[in-house]
């Protein structure tokens, strides 16, 4: 059996005391039984997986295995409030539950809790409109001048508590972003255009619920100008995010509408104007004007993301169509942000804001504060319609409507203990919301038995260590199981001599280290394997094996000798004393034809084989018995072809090309029966049946059938026709011959009778001639 070195984190930790052990992993336990260690074993072998400790003889009561826990300190239920109901203060509305937890963490053991989120209806909203007042935005300013009352009216459909503010920006007031000539500083616009002096950022109107006041103050604003196309909007966004008192942000939904028709400068661009100091992310408003634009560089995108997130601000970019791609990319970098298209229509701006708000508020994304070293969080979300997500997707749920509840399962796991071991506080909150869950993390860094430790105990060699959890924790400069040696005296020749068996040359049998005159045996990669003994001369893995198992799997290895389980014997515990495996079906040991040795039959009758000497491959009837199964498995025919797999899988089938390849009786070390059988088609098939030395039934079969050749029709027909013709001719010849013989006989008979006739050969007296002669009288004979 092969084990990886990293397989047992408890063994690999090499823990010297209980606290180290329980920090190695959640599966690790420490045996505090004083008598647990065997000779040669190190203190660190007290630390192991629980099952291994119990197997090695440590009782449950003597194992230190603390567990983490969790307590809910504040668990106010989420608010079920509808629009038009009694007005609540923002701090009295709850959208996240629980609010405060205390977790006690054991290294490697996760603590999981559920977090519920519910969007409250009629939740207050603060909206700050931040506008680019460079000259190209002149038409858009006219549209915004009447935005206040119109937006207040539309937002009243969403919430009864809405406030709006206004700010503007242009650019840093240094070259090359603006012209610094006196005339251009007064009026940066060309021709007869009357523009206000350039500025970086102004907070024109603090958040207010008075829409008319918004219209009045915005109506008084004038366009300004600058030289380059990108604007200084990032400076303005940073001040809006961090100057909460000046802007008037409440702990409610915070929306920032950023309106521009140009790109943006970011960190590093300030060097063009000789500005090299990084943005400090602090508020620098005096009389509602940003005064340090010439001193600090533009903020970076990451810096903005951090400040917007810290202050729970959701950003809506209202930009012209030309710059949509740029701000879409920026949106991907800023969580809880949206992009809309700006057009020369005030109603379009209102729709843009409302659509963006609905999009942002329909998604909840959890974020956490910085985690202590070694602490990790795992999120699982359970959103609407039973959608479950894990990993990074487990942080968020989308398409959430007002009143919907979603659940997050959050697992907190620590690895080891922080350096100080003191409690830590982390916070989890939904992006864009002010509510959060505060979690106090406590860490289990020591065992309970550590509290009962005895400092300078006499058990640790006259007070040279603290006796805790069944072992000595030596004072500095002391070593040994009982702290009996000074670290300066560890490697002396006298001490090494006591670690050599029979005055040999090997210290601790090369399987350990001599510490303080005592062998401390090495550890093996496999946690189940150990060296032991006074000189580490013993181990539990070098015993005899059977079936590739140590002690045959029926015993344990102690000091390289197998200690067999009951009913087993032999050097490898591979000889069973149980005769039940030798019992034949007739209840006789080995069928009365053999002896039972180590649970296996040794057949004394050479004709019989098998685990119980019941198989006789060469006995009469074997061929007939297996004929149908051989036929169906080899050729797919016969009476058992439909049940072949069920009834005929009891032997191994081996096909050969011809009869010469079949096993011969003299070639095998076991009896082989040769068989010749005929199928329904009068075809012969040949096979052998045998039981091999592994008691497996083997059938070798010739893979082709020996069938009689069919008749040749043409010669038969030709032969029949020729036979008929020849027979006909023969019959004609015989008939002709018979007729000739008959005729000759008849002629001979006639001749004979003719010779024997009694009448004369002269004229017959009775004969009268048929001829009458008449003479003409007038005939003169001429």
- Termini distance? 156 Å
Low-confidence regions? 1-5
The percent of residues in helical segments reads 10-25%
Strand proportion: 15-25%
CA radius of gyration is 56 Å
What is the spatial order of strands in the main beta sheet?
A: 4-6-22-21-16-19
Number of helices: 16
Q: Give the overall pLDDT as a whole number.
A: 86
Shape summary: flat
Counted beta strands? 42
Helix/strand/pairing class, anyone? alpha+beta
The largest sheet is: 6 strands, mixed
Domain Integrin beta subunit cytoplasmic: 736-782
Main location: membrane
Domain Integrin beta subunit VWA: 18-447
Protein name: Integrin beta
Short description:
With 782 residues, this protein is α+β, with helices and mostly antiparallel strands.
Outline the structure in words.
The protein is built from 16 helices and 42 strands. The strands form 14 sheets. The protein has a six-stranded mixed sheet with strand order 4-6-22-21-16-19, with no helix packed on it. A six-stranded mixed sheet has the order 10-9-8-11-14-15, sandwiched between helices. Strands 5-7-20-17-18 form a five-stranded antiparallel sheet, with no helix packed on it. It is α+β, with helices and mostly antiparallel strands and 782 residues long. Residues 1-5 have low confidence and may be disordered. A hairpin with a 5-residue loop joins β40 (672-678) and β41 (684-691). This is Integrin beta. It is a single-pass type I membrane protein.
